[in-house]
Specification:
By secondary structure, this protein is of the alpha+beta class. It has six helices and eight strands; from the N terminus they run βββββαααββαβαα.
Amino acid sequence: MEFQDDAFVLSARAHGDTGAVVDLLTEAHGRVAAYVAGGASRRMKPFLQSGARVVADFRARTSEQLGAARLEPVGEGPAALFDDPLALTGLAAAAAVAQGALPEREPHPGAFYGFEALMAAFAVPDVWPAVFVRFEAGLLEALGFGMDLSRCGATGATDDLAWVSPRTGRAVSREAGAPYADRLLPLPGFLLGAQAGLGDGDVGAGFALTGHFLERNVFHALNRPLPPARVWMIDKLGEAGRL
């Protein structure tokens, strides 16, 4: 197994005296773990931070074996966010969600492009929390658990969609859902289209929505909780009045 691919670093941990095992989100090959020789060196450590963009040359004898990779950095990566602790918290959460949710060596180019868009959005403080919600909705879609927000699951109406069924993931119109509002999940308008804008509480509602389906359909099946980094990020956004 051998390939070269664009990738983002999700995590890195020391392995042996000088190496590191790096978890990568690649464009065409999905999430891949690889041993990087010299990854523990001072020269390499800045390029192995979560969110760093690299070109990876990967080799493995078999598809089951931990492969080895040579990484070439691209751009300045997360260094541009060092003056924004909240954005760094979001970056850590995004990497943890992607690493925890995506199966290894299963191509999901949509997840790569979503992560790429989120990395760009971190430079815009007022925008990235909503983009993060969209990133999580895209992960659910890529994994086969996407929500159907195109029409009301009860009536077929396409207007005034206000809720999502926590059981089916289908949208529900305001009128049809009114009698069951306490059992439905609020649907923030920005998930229906870019023109909707952001209202008070929309980001928090978005995280509650994607978090419900990530927990139920993805992490519960893996016998894991939602990543603590995600919980920490939402706490910090709440303290900053950004939900």
